[in-house]
Amino acid sequence: MEKLASLSIDELLRLKEEYKKEYEDFKALGLKLDMSRGKPSNEQLNLTNPMLDIMGSDVDFVGEANMDYRNYGILNGIPEARRFLGEILDMDEKNIIAGGNSSLTMMFDTVSQGMTMGFGEGPWMLNEENIFLCPVPGYDRHFKITEYFGIRMIPIEMTPDGPDMDEVERYVNNDKRVKGIWCVPMYSNPQGLTYSDETVRRFAALKPAAKDFRIFWDDAYCAHHFRTKKDTLLSLYDECVKMGSEDMVFMFMSTSKISFPGAGIAAMAASENNIKMLNSRMNIQSISPDKLNQLRHVRFFKDLAGVEAHMEKMATFIKPRFKIVMEKLKTLDGMDIIFYSEPRGGYFISVDTLEGCAKRVCQLCKDAGLVLTSAGSTYPYGIDPKDRNIRIAPTYPTCDELSKAMELFCVCVKLASVEKLLK
Ligand SMILES: Cc1ncc(COP(=O)(O)O)c(C=O)c1O
Q: What separation in Å is there between the alpha carbon of 220 and the centre of ligand 1?
């Protein structure tokens, strides 16, 4: 197919009619599909079901800490879980807090602690203005946290190597109001990009104008490879230790998309100074995390090798779905109406339409029964200034449903693009 923009008005008008007809045919199918969030499919979830049987009533609940894990205690998580999560994050267990069921909660709490108590430089909320840098497109729920706390968000463009580090350095090293940056460094949400070694080193070498600046390093997809050729991520913490900047980093992850979303274990990793500071809040907030959930995870997965073997099984369900999305998107190649990422892991594919078309595409899809993550949500305040970006979350539907959904999506992209060109 040739470039749409090079066609005459008559040809575009003819195509518009053709795409409209195709679209109406889809509408008549009465699809009912929700692809708005990155949820694992039932087959993926089933892989972890045996974990639920591991803790029979006759199982010994006394763990390495030589205490009964059914009872209160051990605020930073059981040693077995800290070691296990440390292995996944490539961190020493002494730097790990094994928490509850959600890393997002830990991120929220950490920003909340910055606002109310601060990180050694007084509460952020006493400042006239606080700023977070937000690589875009990015994860909507990160942006919602900073929006909730009234922190101003500045978008930073993503490049194939990660966030535009010239911009990051310019802001962080010169502006005291800049208190943080959201990062999903591996198989990023939504582009599936992994930061290059150079980017990680430049992060570690930042010289923040604000002493209480923190990098919020959300390694949510560190174990989520689905190709034989895996992306690799340099250890930010090790690079920071070399630069003496390890207090600048808070790392987060969870097993939400390894075991069960909402019923996994979440973790934070940080320097000893930072852990001490975080504990001062946690001591008030809680008496104990869910140690039994931590124990059953460790008993089920055992170690990093166990997680890797499990994720290879997961990949057998995820890979075909990404393949379907790619095959369908490729049918639009040559028309010059979309640009899309081709990840080797993670949960999402990022699609950029022609300017001003993303909202229209999502609306068309919705009217035909396919709910996508709303256009704009990959940007701070839900505003994509060019109205281009759409996040595709392919894991939940069956392959047949996904095929139909992507065919519909492609028709909607074509229709919205023709409409735009005719304007
Ligand atoms: C980048 C990222 N971080 C965190 C989460 C949520 O993590 P949790 O379930 O641990 O709160 C998600 C879920 O989609 C995510 O994409």
A: 6
Using one digit for the tens of pLDDT, what is the confidence trace for 147-183?
Answer: 999 999 999 999 999 999 999 999 999 999 999 999 9
User: What is the extent of the structural domain holding 107?
Assistant: 61-302
Instruction: Tell me if 360 is assigned to some domain.
Output: yes
Residue 309 domain flag: no
Nearest CA owner, ligand 1 atom 12:
220
Q: Are 390 and 372 in contact (CB under 8 A)?
A: yes
Return d(Cα 334, Cα 337) in angstroms, integer.
8
Coil vs helix vs strand at 50: helix
Q: Which residues line ligand 1 (CB under 6 A)?
A: 38, 102-104, 139, 184, 189, 218, 220, 254, 256, 261, 266
Q: Do strands 96-98 and 33-35 pair parallel, antiparallel, or not at all (unpaired)?
A: unpaired
Both 14 and 88 in one domain: the answer is: no
Q: Which of 272, 302, 332 is the last residue of a domain?
A: 302
pLDDT tens by residue, 175-205:
999 999 999 999 999 999 999 999 999 999 9
Q: Which of 36, 254, 318 to mutate to test the pocket of ligand 1 (most atoms within 8 A of CB)?
A: 254
- Evaluated on CA atoms 322, 325, 331, 334, the torsion sign reads negative
